Amino acid sequence: MSARSKNQKKVVVRTPSRQESDEEPDKFDEMPVSQASMTSSDAGTDLFEHFVASYASAEDDIRKIWVQIKEEQRALLNIAIQQHASSVSQSSEREKGQVKGLASVKRACDESQKLIEKLVGDI
Fold this sequence. Notes:
With 123 residues, this protein is mainly α. Helix content is 72%, strand content 8%. It has one helix at 35-122; strands at 10-14, 28-32. The protein is rod-shaped.
């Protein structure tokens, strides 16, 4: 068995039988594949490795985008909570102002009614 380099694959080649030649009996030899014949295999391996690296990079980019989306959602949630609290506070202040305004109108109506009754009663 001969030594093979790291980039070479083990290939089993069938040798001719005794009937075809007078050499050794049938057997399988392991023969290293030459560097020239490995070029297409290496190219395929390189292409696959490039694909895997690109895929991993794309997945990392997608994950970063999802993390950014999550952070933005948290920020928007905080803004929405603040807006709601502000709206509730403003609504409460507005209601108090409206109640004061209605109370003033009622007092004015009551005073007008008293004045009318006084004027009508004097006639």
